[in-house]
């Protein structure tokens, strides 16, 4: 059974973590397959949006901690992280198209990090986020030392990371700004697909530039961000989609974007 299911619907690439019996815990194979699929989009622009979800009742339980070889990893974990989960998180953050996370269930540890690396998070009402690392004597990974501070601030991020024993339900996560939208469980597949398809059929260059602007602003001040806005707008104005958008506005009709 494939650990990652790839499905293409028009301009949308849907990636489903497919280890339901392990709550989609991330094996090395799953991490590599997911990273490669995302990097393929970066290289070929074969999709204009990506949606990531999980099979079964969970999104992702984090790293796969089963197996007798776990103790042997202690001497190699830094290098394994750099080549594995770190490479995946950077691929999600740097792919020049929107990444929608359809949070169908619990996301724990590095699975929570993967969820928070997406651009738009839509969650089932029963979904939960759990940092969990300190419970086993580990520290934050999956980019969470960055994403939690950026989204929550230092005080709340520190408490969540150090205690790590209380799951954050979907509604609370939405109130805190970790999740954009919460829907009933049975509506998640259709709602997430509709949302992702809307982005996949949007002005792709502009959406990719917006993604870069948000990332840039998180590490720079207002003056540099203003200069970067001007540079990005210069690129956006040169696209066919911008001309189509303006024309559609003038003609009072929906725009038909081509992604270029």
Structure, explained:
This protein is an alpha/beta fold and 260 residues long. The protein folds into two domains: 4-200, 2-enoyl-CoA Hydratase, Chain A, domain 1, CATH 3.90.226.10; 204-250, Lyase 2-enoyl-coa Hydratase, Chain  A, domain 2, CATH 1.10.12. 46% of the residues lie in helices and 16% in strands. It has a six-stranded mixed sheet with strand order 1-2-3-5-7-10, with helices on both faces. Strands 4-6-8-9 form a four-stranded mixed sheet.
List how many beta strands DSSP finds. Answer: 10
SSE string, helices as H and strands as E: EEHEEHHEEHEEHHEHEHHHH
- What strand order characterises the main sheet? 1-2-3-5-7-10
Radius of gyration: 19 Å
CATH level-two architecture of the largest domain: Alpha-Beta Complex
The backbone outline, from C-alpha atoms, is globular
The N- to C-terminal Cα distance equals 37 Å
Tally of DSSP helical segments? 11
Helical fraction = 40-55%
Mean pLDDT: 94
Largest sheet features = 6 strands, mixed
CATH superfamily of the largest domain: 2-enoyl-CoA Hydratase, Chain A, domain 1
Number of domains: 2
Uncertain spans = none
In the CATH scheme, the class of the largest domain would be Alpha Beta
Percent range for β-strand residues: 15-25%
CATH topology of the largest domain, which one? 2-enoyl-CoA Hydratase, Chain A, domain 1
Q: Return the structural class.
A: alpha/beta
